[in-house]
Design brief:
This is Amine oxidase. The protein is α+β, with helices and mostly antiparallel strands. It has helices at about 15-20, 55-70, 95-110, 120-140, 170-180, 235-245, 260-270, 335-345, 345-360, 400-405, 415-420, 440-460; strands at about 5, 45, 50, 165, 195, 215-220, 225-230, 230-235, 255, 270-275, 275-285, 295-300, 320, 330-335, 375-380, 390-395, 425-430. Bound molecules: flavin-adenine dinucleotide (FAD). Flavin-adenine dinucleotide (FAD) binds near residues 239, 252, 254 and 443.
């Protein structure tokens, strides 16, 4: 329902753990166990069933990839040499950068060929294929709108080199392995924290909570509490944001007493955190086809040609594909508003709407009749009060510095130095949103946990550990 991939095996600590515990092999089939998704030629179909030739799709896909490689700093030029036409400065978004890239490409195109008439002319095809890639990019970044995704930070995000692979025994095997190193009973599940009481100023014996010398007190939703010397907070940025804007929720309310310092609150507010959901669909047995294709869907942007039977929440879905070749389970990704809408819909509505959409896409291919599904499974990260979304991104108006600000422990060491009193390292912050270059990933979350554990080891001079 959540993480599946190791994003680059070269140097990834998650890959090392998975390899060590033999989680990369299984007797059971698993998601993306073959190279099916690396298929360079998925079937791309335009709304109402027109199968698009790679001659039309590939140049646009290459343009999009070239623009994103340029944005990420992987390449110094863009296909067609259009980089000089795209002026990028200040607080620009990935969305507006892509818009300029497409515009320059269109100018090149119009010099080369005229438009055709009909439902799909060349220009609207180019625009819609480009939009398909933009929608895939929304799921990679979790930004609902690419105009909110900061351009400048794109080149700071680092991916490990090497192949991207899935874990045969699933990500839970990694968690289980990490947890098995701890003495039993140390991990307490189902304890929801709703308040972390800390001592930003000088701690004297009077203003402690009467729990020995420990400066932090954690209050749980069930009314119990626990005192601590140090707390490493790893709740999602979504939960932190909800706490900051005091979005009261009856099942979980998470906050700090006193509230976090303003520079932390500002960083939390500025950083982006979005919703990405997965939708799994199982084909019904009467869909007797050897294999369902890796289907890329190109939707009309013009209202005039839109098929009214296709609901808005499917119109930004880039693809639908089996989880491995010949699997009857298909997977599609949703981001932003569409992902939230998906969470709210009953299974029957999802099955109906997706069947109608896919049948219309496959109407001119050799598939017998309507596509029917028998089962649906979807994630619901946006409405889960323990997550409030999926992963972080650098929004326009924020920067990677906000990530570093979020990662700073409390109380601020400068305050402690100036008052020459108080307990240091009461609240530490880890989790994907606190890793400057690997945010949004499991390895980012893991590495940030090591960082904070090491901070405490150093504090206690446990240099040999
Ligand atoms: C659909 C999807 C697909 C993804 N795919 C990948 C992928 O393929 N590869 C990859 O590397 N990453 C992927 N990610 C991202 C990855 O899952 C996250 O970056 C990672 O899980 C973040 O870990 P974390 O520990 O920072 O936070 P989280 O996983 O958000 O964990 C936070 C924890 O805090 C707990 N919590 C929250 N509030 C409270 C409270 N009040 N009291 C007590 N506990 C609380 C939650 O229960 C949760 O256990 C994906 C994410 C999603 C949603």
């Amino acid at each position: 329902m959540g993480a599946t991939w190791i994003h680059g095996i070269g140097g990834s600590p998650i890959y090392e753990i998975a390899r060590e515990i033999k989680s990369l092999e299984s007797d059971q089939p698993w998601e993306c166990m073959d190279d099916f998704l690396d298929d360079p030629n998925p079937i791309t179909i335009a709304e109402n069933g027109y199968v698009l030739s790679p001659y039309i799709v590939d140049p646009v896909s290459n343009l999009f990839n070239s623009l994103m490689d340029f944005a990420k700093g992987k390449k110094k030029s863009i296909l067609g040499g259009i980089e000089s036409d795209i002026c990028v400065n200040g607080n620009v978004s990935v969305g507006s950068f892509l818009e300029k890239g497409l515009e320059s490409y269109r100018k090149l195109l119009s010099r080369k060929s005229g438009n055709e008439n009909g439902e799909w002319d060349k220009e609207s095809l180019v625009e819609s294929i480009f939009a398909m890639h933009e929608n895939a990019q929304r799921t990679y970044s979790a930004a609902n709108d690419l105009h909110k995704l900061g351009y400048l930070a794109e080149s700071e995000w680092v991916m490990f080199p090497g192949e991207e692979i899935t874990i045969a025994k699933g990500y839970s095997s990694i968690i289980e392995s990490l947890a098995s190193a701890l003495p039993s009973g140390v991990i307490q599940l189902g304890k929801k924290v709703n308040d972390i009481e800390w001592q930003p100023e000088c701690v004297t014996s009077e203003n402690k909570h009467g729990y020995g010398s420990r400066p932090v007190k954690i209050h749980f939703l069930d009314g119990t509490s626990m005192s601590a010397d140090h707390v490493i907070v790893t709740v999602s940025l979504g939960v932190l944001k909800a706490g900051v804007i005091n979005k009261a929720n009856d099942s979980v309310r998470f906050g700090f007493s006193p509230t976090l310092p303003s520079h932390k609150i500002e960083a939390i507010t500025r950083l982006g955190y979005g919703v990405v959901n997965k939708l799994f669909l199982k084909l019904s047995p009467d869909f007797d086809l050897d294999r369902f294709p890796f289907l890329q869907m190109v939707f009309h942007k013009s209202d005039h040609f839109k098929n009214p039977k296709i609901p808005w929440w499917i119109r930004k879905t880039a693809s639908l594909s089996p989880i491995y070749e010949k699997s009857r389970v298909l997977l599609s990704w949703f981001a932003g508003e569409e992902a939230l809408k998906l969470e709210s819909l009953p299974d029957e509505v999802i099955l109906d709407d997706v069947s109608t959409t896919i049948s219309s896409f496959l109407s001119q291919k050799d598939y017998n009749g309507n596509v029917k599904f028998e089962k649906v499974l979807k994630s619901g990260w946006g409405s889960d009060p323990l997550f409030m979304g999926s992963y972080s991104y650098i929004a326009v108006g924020s920067s990677s510095d906000d990530i570093d600000t979020l990662a700073e422990p409390l109380p601020n060491t400068k305050v402690l130095e100036s008052t020459k009193s108080g307990s240091p390292l009461q609240i530490l912050f880890a989790g994907e949103a606190t890793h400057r270059t690997h945010y949004s990933t499991t390895h980012g979350a893991y590495i940030s946990g090591l960082r904070e554990a090491n901070r405490l080891l150093e504090h206690y001079h446990c240099i040999d550990v």
